[in-house]
Amino acid sequence: MRCGPLCRLLWLWPCPSCVPAVPMRKVQDDTKTLIKTIVTRISDISHTQSVSSRQRVVGLDFIPGLHPNLSLSTMDQTLAIYQQILASLPSRNVIQIANDLENLRDLLHLLASSKSCPLPRASGLETLEGLGGVLEASLYSTEVVALSRLQGFLQAMLQQLDLGPGC
């Protein structure tokens, strides 16, 4: 008796279930490593050291500050805001950081799915749509404040990941 394509398909069927899943500990470690890399990239940009992440700058209130309670959902939403802010800046310093934020958000979604957290993809920001004039008038200040606050947020995120954030 000859075994046709159907038999071969049935013979291969169990194999996909034999492939081990990526351990969540590895995903969490990769997430922490990427956060540290982004913080280092921000530190390497010399002009970001001139503003405290807690300092209030008039007109730049749309840039998120530190959150007292960081869940995976809050982390993703805040990173989406920073990603959109950085994408709107013409500086070459922030292109790689914006790309890293996208990768970081993907890792957060993997962590959330491992905890069975419903984490909808944060699509964008309605609050930033009308801020083109603010960004044009103060590109340098926006970049400095955004990177400084992002650095502080990432450090808080790193600490929260050690504690095991909720959904």
Shape: globular
Mean pLDDT, as a whole number? 77
Q: Helix and strand succession?
A: HHHHHHH
Distance between the termini: 55 Å
Strand portion:
under 5%
Helix segment count? 7
Backbone structural class: mainly alpha
Largest sheet: none
Radius of gyration: 20 Å
Residues in helices, as a percent range: 55-70%
- The name CATH uses for the topology is Growth Hormone, Chain: A
The assigned CATH architecture is: Up-down Bundle
Total discrete domains: 1
Q: Detail the poorly predicted runs.
A: none
Strands, count: 0
Q: Name the CATH class.
A: Mainly Alpha
GO molecular function, one term: hormone activity
GO biological process, one term: positive regulation of p38MAPK cascade
Pfam family, one: Leptin
GO cellular component, one term: extracellular space
Can I get a quick summary?
With 167 residues, this protein is an all-alpha fold.
Structure description:
The protein has helices at residues 5-12, 15-18, 24-44, 72-88, 95-114, 132-137, 139-163. By secondary structure, the chain is mostly helical. The protein has one domain (24-47, 63-163): Growth Hormone, Chain: A. Helix 3 (24-44) runs antiparallel to helix 5, helix 4 packs antiparallel against helix 5 (95-114) and helix 4 (72-88) packs antiparallel against helix 7 (139-163). The model has no long low-confidence stretch (mean pLDDT 77).
